[in-house]
Amino acid sequence: MTTETRRGYWCECWTQDPADPEQQTLHASFDAYSAAQADRWAAVALRTISPALDAGASDDAWSWLYQGRIATRQALLRRQPCRVSVTHGSTRITWTIRPVIFLTLAHRQGAELPACVDDFKPHASD
User: Please, what sign has the CA dihedral across residues 22, 76, 99, 62?
Assistant: First the structure.
């Protein structure tokens, strides 16, 4: 097992109804290892959905793609969190990008696991 860590960015895409901000749904997450990779993830998603957005949301998306993306990349290079949102009808779509430190997980193959792993039994859901 290695104890190395690696800097990167944790990216998420959420939707919510602005009338009910407590109710959010996570639709996607992505681990990026550079600022370029992180903002590209959001840019590709925005370009992909822009034809289906209403006029205002599409304008907001393309405004970020042409102007806001530069500021986003600069902020990410300074290790600052960023977000971009568009509102389509009654749905707000938000992409968040946060600087993180990724921990290396233990590789399970070839390692003897502790005896307690056999004691774990998933609980039945109600």
Answer: positive
